[in-house]
Amino acid sequence: MKKLLWIVPVIASPALLLMFSLLALLLFFGVFVIFTEEDDEQMNFGGGAICRADGEISEAVFFSQFNDAGKFTGKGQVFIDVAEKYGIDPVLMSAVAFHETGFGTSSAVMVKNNPGGLMDPATGSKYLYSFPTIEDGLNAMGNTLHNRIIKDGLTTIVDLGSVYAPIGADNDPTGLNKHWGPNVTTLVAQFGGLTMNCEVHVVGDWMLPVLNELRITSPFGYRRHPVFGDVRLHTGVDLACANNDPILSAQSGNVIFASGTGWSNGYGLHVIVNHGEVTTLYAHLNSTKVKINDVVSQGDVLGTCGSTGTSTGNHLHFEIIRAGGKEDPMPYLTEYTAVGG
Question: How many angstroms separate the CA atoms of 299 and 50, rounded?
Answer without folding.
Answer: 7
